[in-house]
Amino acid sequence: MATTLSLKELSKKEDLFTHGHRMCSGCGAPIVVKQLLLASDYPIIASNATGCLEVSSCISEYTAWKIPWIHNAFENAAATISGVETMCRSLKKQGKIDKEIKFVAFGGDGGTYDIGFQSLSGAMERGHEMLYICYDNGAYMNTGIQRSSATPLGADTTTSPAGSVIKGKTQPRKNMTRIMAAHGIPYVAQASPAHWRDAVTKFRKALEIKGPKFINVLAPCNRGWRSSTDDAILLCRAAVDTCYWPLYEVEDGVTRINSIPKEKKPVEEFLKPQGRFKHLFAPGNEWLLKLFQEEVDREWERLKKEAQEAVSDKS
Amino acid sequence: MAKVVAVTGNEAVANALRQANPDVCAAYPITPQTDIMQRFSGFVADGLVNTELILVESEHSAMSACVGASAGGGRVITATSSQGLALMWEILFIAAGDRLPIVMPLVNRALSAPLNIHGDHSDGMGARDSGWIQLWSENAQEAYDNTLQAFRIAEHMDIRLPVMVCLDGFIISHSIERIEYLEDDAVKNFIGEFKQLNPLLDVEHPVSYGPLILPDLYMEYKRAQHEVMTKVSKVVLDVAADFEKISGRRYGLFEPYRLDDADIALVILNSAAGTAKDAVDQFRDRGIRAGLVKPRLFRPFPYQEIADALKSAKAICVMDRADSFGGFGPMYMEIASAMMMNGKKPILINKIYGLGGRDFLPEHAELVLSELADVAKSGKARTFKEYIGVRE
């Protein structure tokens, strides 16, 4: 029987991603990993794209992972875990393994939206029994905060600096969750570590569903977002409350919004505490802030419409 | 009992892969390799192997999936050529650095640009420093035999390294030759069961693959990789001795041909060695003491053994079917290094031939041998590096 979904019961479980890892204090990524490992009552084997999580969790003879774990390269976490999963299937077929094992790949947004996109898309199409988790902090944080296709419009990064002529990143972010849903795989979701029950439920659900699954999880990086080290959970909450990062899932093609804020807050509440958006609040840049809000509104309305259509299709 | 068949090099290699019965195969098409994976997919479809196929979206993912599958704990194969190997390049080093015994036939083909699908050795030579063991094959029989032996070498508990089996694109991969197949049972006994080492799939004993190692320890890991390479020659010879017992065919680290008292010698890889041996015979018939070395194990390279084999030669021509632009051909550089081992200084010249599938004809070999005879007599080289069989 699965562990009851209460913090009290979950906290009794063994920590499979242990202390001693070297992620920055206040980083969102290890929270995502811990929530995933707590969610599962199955043995998990994980692959990890090159990035913050990988370089900080297995150094020399030390590993923070109490599960079998493999880092191969930057762009191939999905292909790598697809290999492990296929070997498991082969050995099971031959009667050499009988355990129920779950396969998970972790990648940051660079390893998922950009360089690892082909590998991920291929693995999803092939239908492997795997869950891909993207911890999205919105830039190449490990190499020192360079823009990725997950970087939001206007964000100040080291390769899209807010200068006197160009005001940060000139393009809006790629909607990766939607692109993954377009693969027609059985389960795609968007989650936030601040909404732990929603996140853990999604992880559990994904692990029970047969076939390839993708979950995009917001993971604040106080170095890149230039926010306080104790702000990760608050920022995640603000991201959901402003509908910048809606919590939703697409199960068998049906879109469901998991949490509709009672009062949709202006996106400033998410942007203001972050130094990477400081210039959006400078006199003369109101247009950029407006553009940001319009994009959030447009995406939110589109998502609501998609979810409504799903409801009316059912009735 | 061996079975005599008339098959292409690709067909022979595919049959060797069937007999090895891998647990996982990741495949992606590329000319002239495609035929191997096509045939192998047929074996899977007909239930002749236990293999699970991963039909990936690129060679980069093919090698990435091989790394995952091999770390998982089982026998793993793929095959490629040219651009495919170039795309895998990053992950070749990881397969070797993680000590994963993957077996990969490489059907040698030229690299772009310009685009060319025909045979030369630029692809394999480009992977020289990746940490893979490389076996090179003159003909379909050798490609078949090397593929079978590759599993034993890769999976040897003292080695655990990936092995690349090279054969010439089209010239061997697509030509039909008479070859001898071993019986399935004989191959099964020869290769044996796959032995796991630190498998990821053992969830009771979790292991981490692919750590970050900084300057405090990185060099020790790299030296360990060098050290395991020093053990490979012995294993290759032991495996060859076992293979001879079941096949009657003898393999060494390289093939010496009429070398004992040779004044002049060619060093030449793969299919062109067959043509060159005929030319050597003709020169011997004319009383000229000619010989030939055909390397088989290119990584690790048997420097001392080849230096000893070439000890009587006064003039040597190293024939390269690949170039290092602005340098000598890659095989030339190896032989020049080998010559330092015994402190002997024969005159060493380099000919680049057969790029992009350009025919290597008997008269090319004869011209080179004639030039070598002159060099040996005069003690002077006309030129050290030259393209042959090329339009001026």
Please specify the SSE layout and strand pairing.
The complex is a heterodimer of chains A (315) and B (392).
Chain A: H1 7-10, H2 29-39, E1 44-48, H3 52-57, E2 58-59, E3 62-63, E4 69-71, H4 77-93, E5 102-108, H5 109-114, H6 117-126, E6 131-136, H7 176-181, E7 187-191, H8 196-208, E8 213-218, H9 222-225, H10 232-241, E9 248-251, E10 254-257, H11 268-271, H12 286-314
Parallel strand pairs in A: 1-4, 1-5, 5-6, 6-8, 7-8
Antiparallel strand pairs in A: 2-3, 7-9, 9-10
Chain B: E1 3-8, H1 9-20, E2 24-27, H2 34-45, E3 52-55, H3 59-73, E4 76-77, H4 82-97, E5 103-108, H5 122-126, E6 133-136, H6 140-155, E7 163-168, E8 176-181, H7 184-191, E9 208-209, H8 218-230, H9 232-247, E10 254-257, E11 264-267, H10 272-285, E12 290-295, E13 297-299, H11 303-309, E14 315-320, H12 330-339, E15 347-352, H13 362-378, E16 385-387
Parallel strand pairs in B: 2-3, 2-4, 5-7, 6-7, 11-12, 11-14, 14-15, 15-16
Antiparallel strand pairs in B: 1-8, 6-13, 10-12
Helix pairs in contact in B: 1-2, 1-6, 3-4, 6-9, 10-13, 11-12
* Tertiary shape of chain B: globular
Could you state the order of secondary-structure elements of chain B as H and E? Answer: EHEHEHEHEHEHEEHEHHEEHEEHEHEHE
Beta-strand content bin of chain B: 15-25%
Q: Order of strands across the widest beta sheet of chain B?
A: 10-12-11-14-15-16
Question: What is the CATH H-level superfamily of the largest domain in chain B?
Answer: Thiamin diphosphate (ThDP)-binding fold, Pyr/PP domains
Structural class of chain B: alpha/beta
Q: Assign a percent range to the helix content of chain A.
A: 25-40%
* CATH hierarchy, class of chain A: Alpha Beta
